[in-house]
Specification:
single chain, about 260 residues, alpha/beta, Rossmann fold, six-stranded mixed β-sheet, four-stranded antiparallel β-sheet, 9 helices, 12 strands, globular
C-alpha cells in the first residue's frame, strides 16, 4: 500500500516532560487502524502531530512526499481531518450549518459557499444518516447524533485521511457500535484511510484491521489484533491480569477478558 502519512524519528515534549520518543509511524492508504495505550501514553499527542497542530521537537512528518511544515493549514485540512474527543458544538447552529463548517478549507472568502460546497454537505449528511435532522439545533441532539454530525463535518473537508480521538468514549454501547460500523463502511466503500485512538481493546479488535500499542511514548507493538492483543503484553502495558479468548463469531478478533483478584 502507498504511504499517505509518514513520521520519521519523531519526538515531542510538553515543557520538560517527554511525551513521544523517537517514533517511526507509517499510515498506508486505505488503512483502518487503531491506536491503543494507557492514559498518558501519547495517543492524542501523536494525532495532533499528524495533523500539524503540534510540531515535533525532533523528526519530520510527511503527507505523501511533502513535509507538513511546508504545507499551509488550509492545504493540510483538505487532506487530513481530525475529529477531537471533545468539541464545542455551537449553540444555535443547525446540523446543516455545522456540517457546512467542514467546507471552510474549500470556501472562498469572497464568493462564499458554492453549489459544489452545498452538494458535498448534502452527500455527507446522507452518508452519516443525519439528513432528516438537518434543521435541528445540534445542542438538542443525543451524544450519538452529535458524534455523527462532527464526523459529517470532518468528511465535508473531503479528506484522504480521517483521524479520530476516542470516537466512542462518551457513547452508550449501541451508539458505539453505530459509529464504528460507520467508520468501517467509510473505509471499505469509499477507501477512506482511518486512524482512531481507542480505549476499549475489544471494540478495537472487532472493528480495526491493524492495531498500534503505545506505552510511555513508544511503540511497543503493532500489527493484526491477534498479534498485538496477547495476555503477557497487555499485563505489561496496562498492569491488568487478563485472559485472551477468540470471539465466538468474528474470526481474528481476540477478546480480552479481565481476571479480577488475580495476583
Amino acid at each position: 500500500m502507498t504511504a499517505l502519512l509518514f513520521a520519521a524519528h519523531i519526538s515531542f515534549s510538553y515543557s520538560d516532560a517527554p511525551t513521544l520518543h523517537d517514533i517511526d509511524f507509517t499510515l498506508a492508504r486505505g488503512a483502518l487502524r487503531a491506536l491503543l495505550g494507557p492514559n498518558g501514553s501519547g495517543k492524542t499527542t501523536l494525532l495532533k502531530l499528524l495533523t500539524g497542530i503540534l510540531q515535533p521537537t525532533r523528526g519530520e512528518i510527511f503527507f505523501q512526499d511533502t513535509n507538513l511544515k511546508q504545507m499551509a493549514r488550509r492545504e493540510i485540512a483538505k487532506r487530513i481531518a481530525l475529529v477531537p474527543q471533545e468539541m464545542n458544538l455551537q449553540f444555535g447552529f443547525t446540523v446543516e450549518q455545522m456540517v457546512m463548517l467542514g467546507r471552510t478549507p474549500h470556501v472562498s472568502a469572497l464568493s462564499g459557499a458554492s453549489k459544489q460546497d452545498h452538494r458535498v454537505v448534502q452527500e455527507m449528511m446522507v452518508m452519516t444518516e443525519i439528513s432528516e435532522m438537518r434543521e435541528r439545533v445540534v445542542t438538542e441532539l443525543s451524544g450519538g447524533e452529535q458524534q455523527r454530525v462532527v464526523i459529517a463535518m470532518a468528511l465535508a473537508q473531503e479528506p484522504q485521511v480521517l483521524l479520530l480521538d476516542e470516537p466512542t468514549v462518551h457513547l452508550d454501547i449501541n451508539h458505539q457500535i453505530e459509529i464504528l460500523e460507520l467508520l468501517r463502511k467509510l473505509n471499505r466503500e469509499r477507501g477512506l484511510t482511518v486512524l482512531a485512538t481507542m480505549h476499549d481493546l475489544n471494540l478495537a479488535a472487532l472493528y480495526f484491521d491493524d492495531l498500534v500499542l503505545l506505552e510511555r511514548g513508544r511503540v511497543v507493538a503493532q500489527g493484526a489484533p491477534q498479534t498485538v492483543l496477547n495476555a503477557e503484553q497487555i499485563r505489561e502495558v496496562f498492569h491488568a491480569n487478563v485472559m485472551i479468548q477468540p470471539h465466538p463469531t468474528r474470526e481474528n478478533s481476540p477478546q480480552v477478558i479481565l481476571v479480577p483478584g488475580a495476583d
